[in-house]
Amino acid sequence: MDERYLPEKDVYRVAVVGATGAVGKTMLEILEERQFPVAEMVPLASSRSAGSTITFNGKDYTVQDLEQFDPAGLDIALFSAGGGTSLAHAPRFAEAGCYVVDNSSAWRMEPDVALIVPEVNPDALAMARHNRIIANPNCSTIQLVVALKPLHDAVPIRRVVVSTYQAVSGAGGKGMEELARQTAQLLNAREAEQDVFPARIAFNVIPHIDVFLEDGYTKEERKMMDETRKILDPSIAVTATTVRVPVFYGHSESVNITFEQPLSAERAREILAESEGICVIDDPASEDYPMPSEAAGSDPVWVGRIRDDASFPNSLQLWVVADNVRKGAALNAVQIAEMLIH
Ligand code: A2P
After folding, report:
1. Is 188 exposed, middle or buried (0-12, 13-18, 19+ CB in 10 A)?
2. I need a labelling partner for 315 at 20 to 30 A (CA). Which of 31, 70, 148, 207 fits?
């Protein structure tokens, strides 16, 4: 496939929808860091923060109200303002000729919408030529499929069992405020006020992210299972347990993989170490393994604790960590935007 998505230009007109949020702010930072060729930045949010100022590439921009904004003339809009906002506004941006990269779950499982992790399924982007909406996968899905893809290419994967340890930033700025506030309240012998999460998150672990479905899974678990199969291979069986932990940035995952044929831990370690977007830290002798405290603020997907599953044939166990706001959201969206201009 050689045809470009957007005409070749020196600079592009880019909007960030949800520019005042945790992911939106990181999108702005990453566009700057990677020197994305931006002619004009259009920060958009709700009427609550319209009129406030953000700085991009040393220049001040006024945040505008999404409801009132006319997208004509925009090239790319990165959306991270919740599913309802995407459902209501992404189609009118796309109809105005703008490519939308949407971080919400609103469009991900639509059969004709591209769901993209650039290291994993770049060719699926071709679907976006028709509808101009590209979905950014769930944060936990992204780091999982980056780790699974090179292993699946080496030996086909039959089944994946994954349990997550997800940071509160996955619930946006409000989630981070709740962990900080509850921690301070409990350390001051006061009652912890609860608002964002379904139970107290400070000094706790909550096996419940998003709503429960009729089959007993949560919607977050269902997203991981369905999205992994859509991105990687629908023939892989996937089951997930998603858990919120009192960590600010960085999701961790315990992953058990059963292959069709044997794949040794040693060979898996070599394959992962050579793969795009992955850093392996795996040295039990020096007690080296990935952790969110170190992955936070970084771009790669970190993999460690790679070992043969002693309980079952053709199976491996590994530990996968990434910054959920960067690779899990903003960075992946910016990488998709880069594919649109090259
Ligand atoms: P606002 O600052 O106006 O509320 P987070 O995920 O950190 O909670 O951030 C959510 C982001 O989505 C914020 O930038 C927020 O803007 C934006 N947002 C939420 N609801 C809407 C809406 N209805 N229209 C536009 N932006 C919205």
Report:
1. exposed
2. 207
Assess contact for 327 and 143: CB atoms under 8 A.
yes
Q: Does the reported pTM lie above 0.90?
A: yes
Q: Give per-residue pLDDT as tens, 13-50.
A: 999 999 999 999 999 999 999 999 999 999 999 999 99
Candidate from 23, 28, 46, 179 with most ligand 1 atoms within 8 A of CB, to mutate: 46
Question: Annotated catalytic, 98?
Answer: no
Report the SS3 class of residue 319: strand
> Within a 10 A sphere around the Cβ of 164, how many other Cβ atoms?
28
Q: Give the distance from CA 302 to its chain's centroid.
A: 14
Instruction: Supply the DSSP string of 88-130, one letter for each residue.
Output: HHHHHHHHTT-EEEE-SSSSTT-TTSEE--TTT-GGGGGGHHH
190 Cβ partners below 8 Å, 6+ apart?
Answer: none
